[in-house]
Structures are given as C-alpha cells and as structure tokens.
Amino acid sequence: MNLKQLKRAALALAALLTLGSAAHAAEEQPYAFNVLNQRSIALTSQYWNPILIYVSKKSGVPLELRLARTTKEANALAEQGAYHFLYTNHFFTPERDRLGFRVIARPAGPGIRGQIVVPADSQIKTLSELNGKEVAFASPDAFAAYWLPMDALLKSKVNVKPVFTANQEAGLAQLKVGTVAAAGVNDVIIQRYARREGFEYRLLWNSELYNDLCIMASSKVPPAKIAAVRDALIGMMNDPEGRKVIETGAELLKIKDSMGFIATSDREYDNYRAFYKKTLVKAAN
Predict the structure, then answer these.
(1) Of 254 and 274, which is predicted with more confidence?
(2) How far apart (Å, rounded) are the C-alpha atoms in residues 239 and 199?
(3) Average pLDDT, the chain
(4) Is residue 24's pLDDT more than 70?
(5) Does 1 reside within a domain?
(6) CATH of the domain at 174
(7) Total domains, the chain
(8) How confident is residue 255, by pLDDT bands cut at 50, 70 and 90?
(9) Confidence of residue 9 (pLDDT cuts 50, 70, 90)
(10) Measuring CA to CA, how many Å separate 68 from each of 24, 38, 165?
(11) Which of 125, 147, 258, 283 has the most C-beta neighbours closer than 10 Å?
C-alpha cells in the first residue's frame, strides 16, 4: 500500500470512529425527567436527584432532572415533548390524555386529597366565610391544590380571589404569615410542611381520595427502557442502596408514612378523568 492509499485508509478509519462516537454519544443522551412544582426548586432537587442517580445506575437508562420555574412553564414544555418522564398528576385532562404519556409507578401510600385549610387560630370556620377573600393556590393546573378545592367552592357558591403562588409550599408560607385567608392544598404536602415548619392549621374542606402523583413515561421512550426504569423504581425499597436513598429523602421532607414506589397503571387514575368531565372549574387559557 503506497502513502496515498495509507492516507485514504487513515481518513476513512477516522471518519468511521467519528461516526461511531457520535452514535454512541446520541445513544447515551440522558432522558429528561420533570417533577411537578410542589416545593421550591432547591428542595425538589435535593430530594429527586439522588433517586434519579440511583435509578439511572440500576436501570442503565440515564435520567436527568429537568425543572422549570413554574408549573405552567413545565406543563407547556411537556406538551411540546421536552420531557421523557414526568412526575405529575396534571396529564389526565382530555387534551393532555392524548399526548401519549402513560402511568408506570407511583409513591407508596393510600393516596391524596384536595383540601382547603386556614391557620389554627383563624376566625374563619366555614367555606362561606371565605366569600370575597384571597385564597392561595399553587397554579391553575394544580389538581389537588386548585381544581378540587375550587370545584368545591364553586359548588358551594363561594367566590374567592385566587392568588397563584407557583408551588404549594409558597402558598402555605403566605398562609402562615397571614397574607391570604386560606389555601388550597394537597393533604400530604401540608402534613409534611406542618411537621417541618411547626405550622398548625385547621381543615375547612376535604375531597375524596385520589391516587398520588405518578411517574409517567412518554410513548417516545422505548418500552424496554420504560420497563427498566419502572423496575428500578419499584425495587428501591428491597435494595439496601436504594432504601438508603429513599430514607434519606424521607428525612429531608419529614415523611413519616409509606415510603418508596409501587407499580400502578393508567386505569387507577380514571377518577381523575371522570372529575375533569364534570367539574365546574374552567381550564385557564
């Protein structure tokens, strides 16, 4: 082989290696995992990053936490296909149900309820006394922290002034200092917030039970990778390393009840779909 041929062969090999490296890099691109804005970005990251690091390692599917500034922004990005996995309960509306996200797992535990709460020392004793007053809600998309309590208020013919606070704990902080008269919340979030912050509250209204937020996978993710992620999540409590991650996160959020994740399916969220069909609340534009 002469010098000219050697140079051609070297260039061809370099091109093949470059193509191979590019293909490998594309193959290793992380899958975007979005978590609903219930708490501050800092606290959400502290809790979820160790879980996703563990699941990535266990499943062989690289996951990357991608958070947005607000729930509205996160949902809009999800609708545009920016995320591969979601931790949410906002995607059971008729419009979003058609986007191809399907439930694969949820936190262990009995479920969640929407609630309307006031500080323990508030003079307000009934829903009717909230008429005309400011009430904190996480966002117009929040199921337990807006849709359920607002539906109850509308059915009781109580007109309130919604104050949207970006996440539930921000609304509870406003309730704590007396900026708003009441707050619409998820019962699990307020219980854990109250333990951490020493906040005493009183319940004005409580919804029926719904399954907790769930982990959903996009139909664009290969089924084998979805299965690997699901299996890693639901196996965490049976693995010493995974259990330690869950317990550390539980201590951070002051979780005293059920821990870890369990398998679930789309059918277990049909009561969300039924609610959206009959609610008096109108979707925000």
Answers:
(1) 274
(2) 35
(3) 90
(4) no
(5) no
(6) 3.40.190.10
(7) 2
(8) confident
(9) very low
(10) 28, 12, 14
(11) 147
